[in-house]
């Protein structure tokens, strides 16, 4: 046996002519062998100087090679490795599993790994942020409250779904390494290595990409003055801290929100309750057009107007004025208007963080393409949350979903599958062999090499059967928001005809209304403002079941009662 310095092992082809051998390169994996094709041959070499058997997997073509050096030669001796090799090994960290990203998906993935019994030291989370994973939606809601504001450690994952709060100590107790304030600048999926901005190298056996999204900045489009002080974006807790400081410093001042989507609406409400004079600007004909119908949007625009928020539609910010200190003073609109501003918050969308993997993974619809188990096109690499374009089984199409609910559930799905796949392989040096992979004893069996190959064939079949029984991701799209005293939920798909029901008067003391989406004679989506827990469950069920509808007028009259019948 010969081990080269790249961490690969050269094995001997037993069928080669005497006096020469053919070399095959085998890749060593700390958690055992992994088949790369349906037909795989395993060769185990028992060498007297090796104390335990290793398992190998062919990964390259045969080439002629002289016989390996005999035991006792300089290469085969037990001399100490060179200083260069030691320094390289000290600069590297190796883990069985690495989660890249420190957001919601990372936290829920870590919890799932812990549930499934990951061993101490096997799992690491690498995050650019300086804190353990937390529930990101709090940043645009409770974190900005003027009184009783949410603060860490109060909203670490997994409290957002009613689960246990995973404090930093929890990761330590579970033997999970939190590698914080670390930005990965290079990912080499072929060599299973990640490189940080500081030059550290992290090796892994299985990678879960949970890098999430980044905000779209106006400076990316060359908007004049977009780098002025006092222009904020909200994605991470550091962004929220800066915004909180500005709110406190500019009490009673003027705030302009650029954008009328999720962030725009939630931050418009948050700044208003902090006694700022708020104006919202967006180019669309109504707010949140990717989800809201004009009828739904009319309610929220009216409600916000009643709270003193001014809304300017059909135009965009084309520049910013600032003073001698570089602080923003005004927002210039395309229609010629100029709005005074002490604070500007921009919420014009986000883009998935996939740059590290360009050219290494198949992409589609702006994200990393995965299957129903969140496997990517590269072996042992999974993508979850915002970055994943996955099969949406309910609608038989590929989609990328940016929402915390999907981040949580996709992370759990990927971990369950990755752990299950890993359990199909025999770990090195262990007696745990649930799938019957070849062992050293197979070589000494009566059938010798033939017995080994037969065992490998049976094991491959067993592994295929075990993985195949795992359920594919079957996600029901879900979105929600809370602002002022309002709270809405949406389930399903917002395509087709719509009906609006209930009280959607923005001046009502207790407004309550909803909308159904109907396609091909079936209800495919449902929205409800101010619903109870049971009512929200009812509209979720309708969106999942997709019941037929005979008349839109009848559906309008039935309203919420229609959902209660399923």
UniProtKB/TrEMBL annotation:
Limits of the FAD/NAD(P)-binding domain: 95-408
GO terms for MF: monodehydroascorbate reductase (NADH) activity
Entry GO CC: cytoplasm
Name the UniProt record assigns to this protein: monodehydroascorbate reductase (NADH)
Cofactor(s) it depends on: FAD
The enzyme's E.C. designation: 1.6.5.4
Family: Belongs to the FAD-dependent oxidoreductase family.
């Amino acid at each position: 046996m010969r081990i080269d310095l790249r961490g690969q092992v050269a094995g001997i082809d037993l069928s080669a002519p005497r006096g020469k051998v053919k070399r095959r390169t085998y890749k060593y994996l700390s958690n055992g062998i992994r088949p790369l094709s349906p037909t795989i041959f395993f060769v185990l070499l028992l060498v007297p100087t090796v104390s335990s058997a290793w398992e190998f997997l062919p990964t390259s073509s045969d080439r002629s090679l002289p016989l390996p050096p005999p035991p006792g030669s300089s290469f085969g001796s037990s001399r100490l490795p060179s200083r260069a090799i030691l320094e390289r090994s000290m600069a590297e960290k190796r883990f069985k599993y690495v989660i890249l990203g420190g957001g919601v998906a990372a936290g829920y993935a870590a919890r799932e790994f812990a549930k499934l019994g990951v061993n101490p030291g096997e799992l690491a989370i690498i995050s650019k942020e300086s804190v353990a994973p937390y529930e990101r939606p709090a940043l645009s809601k409770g974190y900005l409250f003027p009184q009783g504001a949410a603060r860490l450690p109060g909203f670490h994952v997994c409290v957002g779904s009613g689960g246990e709060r995973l404090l930093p100590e929890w990761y330590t107790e579970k033997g999970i390494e939190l590698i914080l304030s670390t930005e990965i600048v290079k990912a080499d999926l072929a060599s299973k290595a990640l490189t940080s901005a500081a030059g550290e190298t992290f090796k892994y056996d299985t990678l879960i990409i949970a890098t999430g999204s980044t905000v779209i900045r106006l400076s990316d489009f060359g908007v004049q003055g977009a780098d002025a002080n006092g222009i904020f974006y909200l994605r991470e807790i550091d962004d929220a801290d800066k915004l909180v400081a500005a709110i406190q410093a500019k009490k009673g001042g003027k705030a302009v929100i650029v954008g009328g989507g999720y962030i725009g609406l939630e931050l418009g409400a948050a700044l208003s309750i902090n006694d700022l004079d708020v104006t919202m600007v967006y180019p669309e004909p109504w707010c949140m057009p990717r989800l809201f119908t004009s009828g739904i949007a009319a309610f929220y625009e009216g409600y916000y107007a009643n709270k003193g928020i001014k809304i300017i539609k059909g135009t965009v910010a084309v520049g910013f004025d600032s003073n001698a200190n570089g602080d923003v003073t005004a927002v210039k609109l395309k229609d010629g208007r100029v709005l005074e501003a002490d604070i500007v918050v921009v919420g014009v969308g986000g883009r998935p963080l996939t740059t590290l993997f360009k050219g290494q993974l198949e992409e589609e619809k702006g994200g990393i393409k995965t299957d129903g188990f969140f496997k990517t096109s590269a072996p042992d690499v999974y993508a979850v949350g915002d970055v994943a374009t996955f099969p949406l089984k309910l609608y038989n199409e590929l989609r990328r979903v940016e929402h915390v609910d999907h981040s949580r559930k996709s992370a759990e799905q990927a971990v369950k599958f990755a752990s299950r796949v890993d359990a199909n392989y025999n770990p090195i040096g262990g007696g745990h062999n649930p799938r019957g992979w070849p062992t050293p004893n197979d070589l000494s069996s009566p059938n010798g090499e033939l017995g080994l190959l037969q065992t490998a064939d049976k094991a491959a079949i067993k592994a295929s059967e075990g993985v195949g029984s795992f359920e594919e991701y079957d996600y029901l799209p879900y979105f929600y928001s809370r602002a002022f005293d309002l709270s809405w939920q949406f389930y399903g798909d917002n395509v087709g005809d719509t009906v609006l029901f209930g009280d959607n008067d923005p001046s009502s003391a207790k407004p309550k209304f909803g909308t159904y989406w109907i396609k091909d004679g079936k209800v495919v989506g449902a929205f409800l403002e101010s619903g109870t827990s049971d009512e929200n469950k009812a509209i979720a069920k309708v969106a999942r079941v997709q019941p037929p509808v005979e008349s839109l007028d009848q559906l309008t009259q039935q309203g919420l009662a229609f959902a209660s019948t399923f």
